[in-house]
Amino acid sequence: MKKIIVIGGGAAGMMAAIQAASKGNQVVLLEKNEKLGKKVYITGKGRCNITNACDTEDLFKHVLRNRKFLYSAFYRFSNWQVMDFFENHGLSIKTERGERVFPQSDHSSDVIQTLQKALEQLGVSLRFHTKAAELLEHGKKMTGVRLLDGTVECADAVILATGGCSYASTGSDGDGYRFAKALGHTLMKPRPSLVPFEVQEPWIRELQGLSLRNVKICIRKGRKNLYEEFGEMLFTHYGVSGPLILSASGIINDYIDDVPLSLTIDLKPALSEEQLDKRVLKDFQENQNRQFKNAVQKLFPAKLIPVMISLSGIEPEKKVNEITREERLNFVRLIKEISLNISGFRDFNEAIITRGGVNVKEVNPSTMESRLVKGLYFAGELLDLDALTGGFNLQIAWSTGYLAGDSIE
Asked: In this structure, are residues 204 and 307 in contact, taking their beta carbons and an 8 Å threshold?
């Protein structure tokens, strides 16, 4: 029996501790907060998108960086095994649109309670309000952890699962990066990912809270297309957010320093410009004696109407039958291509995940053990791994945590 210390009581740390303890090891889980899973609690808007029910091989398509590194982890503890784990431990789950898996109750607290119960049943020692100050090694081999109060906890192995920098209020304040660096590991620059955009246009504030479904966005740097996709987005007081935007941020992260980038929104992607013109013409004919501002109610949500009228350049009081063909066609083009300029990304406080972290080239993908220090293992967001929304980032946490806990012999 080995003594294993797990630092971090998030998704990866809890799963690592469960698997390590299930093999008969003595496991101590150190958590600086007063309870486990503070970030798990807020994921999926408090519902916890546990994983995704796609084919296991399709998981890789949704990983943005270092997907090959996850081969062993995903196949050792797949999304289907994650679902089995929770169901076998008494948690009812359900699958929603996009194959996203949630607890039946829609309460992330039930996911955390399921994990904590498993930890307690396996005899894992849970130490709350306990912060690690330093990882101890001798001859490039882990020997234990020095706590903030000066006491030393000896260990045969340490699993570092402290998370990244996103949502620092949950405890992810970059501690793990400091520990890894002190032991010789290289860090890929941490950046906020799956995060909203700020835009330059002041009129965006008038649309705060408006959600648009079935729109298409395109993000470009000059003439280069960086991202193009259909889906749902949300306007905020500073810019844009929502599933489409968050996914885009993960993909265009390399261009974060190249702002402004252009963002265009197609409000009617199902219609060609010609088809949309016929639709607009039909609406205009039905309202030919009304003012322009009162003739577009069927085209847009109420909150968007005054903004679209303003952007069109057509006088709001102008009678529809006085609108020229050129004005109408320009209006149609506006509907197909509202232009915005992305001025920046929001910071780590609003980022769902961190992009960057411990260089995976310095970690054995078959075991999650450091290639530099024997007995040091990594799991979860601390590593330079990130994926799109939809349960894929939590799957990385479960899989890498499980593999780290399972690999300590």
From this structure: no
Residue 357, CB half-sphere, CA atoms under 13 Å: how many?
30
Residue 67, phi then psi, degrees to nearest 5: -65, -35
CATH of the domain at 301: 1.10.8.100
Q: What is the CB-side half-sphere exposure of residue 232 using CA atoms within 13 A?
A: 9
Residues 206 and 109 in one domain: no
Task: Name the E strands within 128-178.
Answer: 132-137, 142-147, 152-154, 157-160
Strand-strand pairing, 26-30 and 3-7: parallel
Domain holding 182: CATH number? 3.50.50.60
Q: Same domain, yes or no, for 401 and 327? A: no
Cα radius of gyration rounded to whole Å, the chain: 25
d(CA 319, CA 69): 62
The domain containing residue 21 runs over which residues?
A: 3-191+354-407
How many domains would you assign to the chain?
2
Q: Are 30 and 125 spatial neighbours (Cβ–Cβ below 8 Å)?
A: no
**253, 341: one domain:** yes
Amino acid at 111: V
Structure tokens of 393?
Answer: 């980032």
CA neighbours within 13 Å on the CB side: how many for 173?
9
40 and 157 in one domain? yes
pLDDT along the chain (409 residues), means of 10: 97 98 98 95 93 97 96 98 98 96 98 98 98 97 97 98 81 86 96 94 96 97 94 96 94 85 97 96 92 93 96 95 95 98 92 94 98 98 95 98 96
Phi-psi region of 368 (alpha: psi -120 to 50; beta: other; left: phi over 0): left
